[in-house]
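Cross-check.
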Amino acid sequence: MSIEHNQLRAGLASSLYRPLTDTEVEKIVGEAFRVLEKSGMAVYSQTARDALQAAGATVDESSCRCTFPRGMVEDAIDSNPSSITLYSRDGRNDCVLEKNRVYYGTGGTAIYALDPDSGERRPSTTSDVALNARFVEALDHIHLFTINVFPNDIGNRDDIDANRFFHAFDNTTKHVMGGIYSMKGLREAVSMSEIIAGNAEALRAKPFVSFITLVISPFKIDDNYGEMTCYLARKGLPVVVPTEPICGTTSPITLAGNVLVHVAETLAGITLVQAVNKGAPGICGSVGSITNLHTMDHVGGAIERGMINAAVSQIAQRLQIPLYSTAGTSDAKTVDVQASYESAMSSLLVAMSGANYIHDIAGLMETDLTVAYEKLVLDNEILGMCQRVLRGIEVNDETLATDLIIEKGPGETYLTDEHTLNHMHGEFFMPELANREKRESLTPGHDALSRAAATVTRLRRETPASQLTPDIREKLLADFPNIKTQS
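Predicted model, tokenized:
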């Protein structure tokens, strides 16, 4: 492996930030088991209730309340895969979610985009789905594409999923993950994926697509998400069962109480997946945050959000369940200093915790409502810096260079030594946007935001190239006439 490739490689391991002690981790895990056994979940999907009851849950049909014996949850944890690979279509960007290996991606299903021409916020469209996928394909430090914008130009709810997934597949070979808006749409997205893979067995063997359902805080699995989770579990495709408790509204206001709700709720989702199909690839999820105490709204850029998700990361590693986490979000309304420092702080914290797949980490702002293309590019550079931190400092005879230090002695320079030449390109992260030149050499457009905007312009001007073979693309458009093509 070359130094240059090593600098960019994904899946680095990290346990550099651990907000919980081992004792505290065990305490939260035990309390999560107790919550599920004593209070349980309201499960509004009949299919899900039947599967849970068959697996050992106590079900009250009149209230739809399901309580889970501790042993049932422990069995689900044991049967859920501890390593899940989210494959790319070209094999170059596979993401192996296990232990404390870290990958980054987009996410959020924002309903707005900052228009790169006018700078104004506008409703996002299918064109934004396609353009975001193209950007992810081009940006080195974003490892997979979680579909991050909503196509407001698609009026029929049943057509949303086919359009989102088609335009994702058409514009990136990286793994595609997405939430779901209807059962019909889910079936179409799965069918589309099977066509691309060749058949259902090929897709299940190397899934280049995964899906997000939802546990609704506090402690509810609704009918639609319950049915979708069961469908995906039967299919044997990776399904994320995330939860989004907010401190003070849908969870206790304390960070510890919020972490407990996170763990209990997402374990309920994992238990459902395993109740339907033992061994199916379930991914637990951590998305929650804190409350703006002035308005009681959700806060996206709070540092506590990073702390919460880092704590859940520790617990997921203790349970050996792959984790879908959250970082990189901001409450800023423009791509400004706030957008950068809020994103950078949470991105670094959660990456240092060893969270397996960190979504929302590029492009999102305005409390997860808006995607900005300049921020997507800026966040890519922030993630490159995070990767450098995760690489750490390699200590061996070669990197210490003790003999060279002794040989050189006091007062000598190392600038022209072979050791310097061998390591100069791989030891440091080299930014493309940050300006490190002296003031006297500055030219117009030297600042990072201007450089990010120039990158956006360059990527937009490139002629779009389909990442699907012509025959597959034609078949998908023929089989799914509800897909809106780009002009």
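The first helix runs from residue 3 to 8. The radius of gyration is 23 Å. Passed to J.P. for a second look.
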